[in-house]
Specification:
The structure holds 2 protein chains of 2 kinds. Chain A is of the alpha/beta class. Helices cover 22% and strands 26% of the residues of chain A. The chains are: A alpha/beta, B mainly alpha.
């Protein structure tokens, strides 16, 4: 008989959905998440499609469903290190890295206040710092602090521990190995942003006011490094004249040979952040062709009708910096007029593409394409790929896909 | 805006593909190429528009467009192209087709561009020189007269009048083909007549020519390339060594017919020094051309048969030229005469087929550069 539980690798919107749907149908589920929090990329967005609501509106509900359901167990700071067996009977080993904070944590912030060390905040893509004892973000679930041992060295840990009134800090925590027996496995490891420094002509990492689209999400988010103000990195000046560079890495055989699916919509959405925040702002989108699949087309029309938004057909292939003003100089050919143009902006947002995280995560048993995507048909029985692990997709499609995978997993364990 | 009907010439599209432009159909007109190109004028930049003209089979637009020669195949476009459409190589293929169109007879142009005719092209000089040697009875080494001190004298192997007759004929043929080709090319660029287009360049014809020559002798366009910027040096070496060898040949004619002084000349003679320095510069230059190409092959493309044939001929000329001299001085007849024979065959190849080979870029590119300056294109 098949094992009656399901493993979900990845606690982003896809993994959470698959786990909750499976558990609510009456099966035990384990979620293994690499980060110290659940929610994945969606948690980092300012607003997301289709309703353009902030991430709390979707994640909050999912977190409540997890809290209320005893069938769901989740491990954060965890990774799958071994999978053996076959459909219906998989043995899985999970390595859980130490959080150094136990369940007694109430999230009072005393440890962070006392903590002498700082760490770059990867949740905000390094645009600010947190203390080495930190809460990943305000609405983090689980609502527990974390101590980053890479940065909290020497007496740092002691200082944090002494500040905690609840005995929640345990500096002796060691990595643990957990063995799970499951009937089916859902792989929802999601995506990373392509490393924009690899595009040596687009200036990222060299020109300070060139940022990625995910950085723009954090800049616009109220819980971001600028409390939601769209300020450019070099001098904190409001960025009111912003260029969006489409296909920054995507559809390019030198980088990501596929379309990342979401970047056109992301840029159009981010134009609305800018236009709503500064009524006198201007945006220019440089594109090869605008890809707004299905009903998203209507959103495109809406943005296009704004007189302060300019759409220029022509891929940006060179970005440099005005060393005095730190303004960003963008070069493209306006294909419709056949003229090479050079325009200056306060800030430039690269619509950087999606790279499947599975490429780096080395999950055993799973086979990947050259680009790092999982192909469903080449997997062992009872292993299901969901969301961006398979192909670049948006939240809506990830969620639909996750529900489908939940049904598939249930079929497997009932066999 | 007036309506425009596009009549794609599908045969032409296939010809571009055959000529080495097979990657052109991958182009999706993103215009990365025009932005990374450092040598294009900013208005109506190349090579994006040429890529769509080639895809659509707009033959006339491409042929009358001097931009294809303003392109120096830096290959920055090819390196950054997101689709592997290799604009640099496509424009190279179109340049080759331009020669084939304007250098008549076209069967020779076809033959030079296609490896399967190489044997026939080589056979022409081989047969000519063999016939000369047979008529002189010089086919066996022992029957070739030596110099007074027993040294090897190439002028005794094949006397100068024979050499002159063959090479003057070859050069004259090439010159006639070039003049004819350039005139009809100019006519097409100018839009049907030689005088109908509007002259914009302030300096007029002479101004445009002198500014073109200035650009060629300084090679400043090559220096704008990013990926292949080392090519400025290698091409410059090859270019100036050809200039040196041309001067050598001219002075040698004066020595022979003006001063009645027959070769070989001593190594200390200024002419011989110039000749040897030029030969070594050419050897280094063509060596760099080859190594740079191989080094950049992954990003810039390996280049076509057509490119490599020209490089091969130049390499053959310089290597056999130097070896002819060395084996002559070392008095190794069994090597010297055959090497000299190959040298003559290679030089004939370069001269007689110049209007059809990559050598012709020298003439057509110069023409297009003059035209583009004169017409205000740049």
């Amino acid at each position: 008989m098949a094992e009656q539980s399901v493993l979900v690798i990845g606690g982003g919107i896809s993994g959470l959905t698959a786990a909750i749907e499976t558990a609510e149908a009456g099966y035990d589920v384990f979620i293994v998440e690499r980060n110290p929090y659940l929610g994945g990329r969606v948690a980092q967005l300012n607003k997301y499609f289709p309703k353009l609501c902030p991430p709390v509106c979707g994640l909050e509900l999912n977190f409540r469903r997890i809290k209320e359901n005893a069938r769901i167990k989740f491990f954060t700071l965890a990774e799958v290190t071994g999978i053996s067996g076959s459909e219906g009977n998989y043995d899985v080993t999970v390595k859980v890295n130490p959080r150094y904070v136990n369940d007694k944590c109430v999230g009072c912030d005393a440890c962070a206040q006392a903590c002498p060390a700082e760490r770059p905040n990867e949740f905000n893509f390094g645009m600010d710092k947190t203390k080495a004892a930190y809460l990943p973000f305000e609405q983090a679930f689980p609502f527990k602090y974390v101590i980053d041992a890479n940065y909290c060295k020497g007496d740092c840990g002691k200082a944090c521990k002494e500040a905690c009134k609840y005995d929640a800090i345990d500096l002796d925590m060691k990595p643990e190995t957990i063995n799970l027996k499951v009937g089916a496995i859902v792989v929802a490891t999601g995506w990373n942003l392509y490393d924009a420094t690899k595009m040596d002509n687009l200036g990222f990492g060299k020109v300070k006011n060139v940022i990625t689209n995910m950085m723009m999400e954090r800049l616009a988010a109220p819980n971001g490094p600028t409390q939601g103000k769209i300020l450019r990195p070099s001098d904190g000046k409001p960025a009111k004249n912003v260029a969006f560079v489409q296909c920054a890495g995507s559809r390019d055989e030198n980088h990501l040979p596929y379309c990342s699916y979401i970047c056109c919509m992301a840029s159009l959405k981010q134009v609305t952040y800018l236009r709503e925040q500064y009524p006198d702002s201007k945006a220019e989108i440089f594109y090869i062709d605008i890809r707004t699949p299905g009903r998203y087309e209507q959103f495109y029309w809406k943005v296009k009708d704004d007189a302060n938004v300019k759409l220029t057909k022509g891929k940006v292939a060179r970005i440099t910096e005005d060393l005095e003003t730190r303004d960003v100089i963008v070069e493209a050919e306006d294909v419709l007029t056949g003229k090479k143009i050079k325009r200056t902006f306060d800030m430039v947002v690269l619509a950087t593409g999606m790279e499947p995280a599975a490429k780096q995560s080395n999950i055993p048993v799973i086979s990947l394409t050259q680009d790092g995507f999982m192909v469903q048909s080449s997997q062992k029985g009872g292993i299901f790929a969901v969301g961006t692990v398979k192909s670049p997709v948006d939240v809506q499609r990830s969620v639909q896909d996750a529900t489908g995978a939940a049904v598939k997993s249930i079929q497997t364990v009932r066999r | 805006m007036s309506e425009r009907v596009i009549n794609p010439d599908l045969k032409f599209v296939n010809e571009v593909v055959q000529a080495g432009g097979e990657s052109m159909k991958k182009c999706f007109q993103c215009a990365t190429c025009t932005v990374v190109c450092n040598v294009t004028p900013p208005d109506n930049p190349f090579p994006r528009k040429e890529m769509i003209q080639a895809q659509w089979g707009l033959k006339d637009e491409l042929f009358k467009n001097p931009d294809i020669w303003l392109c120096h195949q830096c290959s920055d476009c090819t390196a950054y192209c997101p689709r592997g459409a290799k604009p640099g190589e496509v424009l190279g293929a179109i340049r080759k087709m331009t020669l084939q169109r304007y250098s008549k007879p076209s069967f020779l142009a076809k033959a030079v561009g296609d490896s399967k005719y190489l044997v026939f092209l080589l056979a022409v000089p081989v047969v000519i020189f063999l016939l000369i040697l047979a008529s002189l009875g010089h086919l066996s080494l022992s029957s070739i007269p030596r110099g007074e001190d027993g040294s090897i004298v190439y002028a005794h192997f094949i006397p100068v009048p024979y050499i002159d007759a063959v090479f003057i004929a070859a050069a004259l043929f090439a010159a006639i083909v070039f003049v004819n080709g350039v005139l009809s090319y100019w006519k097409d660029m100018a839009g049907g007549g030689l005088t109908k287009w509007q002259k914009v360049h302030g300096g007029g014809f002479l101004g445009a020519i002198s500014s073109t020559i200035g650009e060629i002798i300084s090679h400043n366009r090559f220096r704008k390339c990013d990926l292949t910027n080392k090519r400025a040096t290698s091409h410059l070496l090859v270019f100036y060594s050809f200039v040196g060898l041309a001067i050598t040949t001219t002075v040698a004619i004066y020595y022979l017919y003006g001063l009645h002084w027959e070769s070989p000349y001593p190594l200390t003679d200024p002419l011989k020094i110039l000749a040897n320095v030029s030969a070594i510069a050419l050897l280094i230059g063509i060596g760099l051309v080859i190594t740079n190409r191989l080094k950049n092959a992954e990003k810039a493309g390996v280049g076509s048969y057509y490119d490599w044939l020209f490089i091969g001929v130049v390499a053959a000329i310089v290597i056999t030229g130097i070896l002819s001299e060395v084996t002559r001085l070392a008095n190794i007849a069994a090597l010297a005469y055959p090497i000299y024979f190959i040298h003559l065959v290679s030089v004939f190849f370069l001269f007689a087929y110049a209007p059809f080979s990559k050598m012709a870029h020298m003439v057509y590119r110069t023409t297009a550069m003059v035209f583009s300056k004169l017409s205000g294109r740049e």
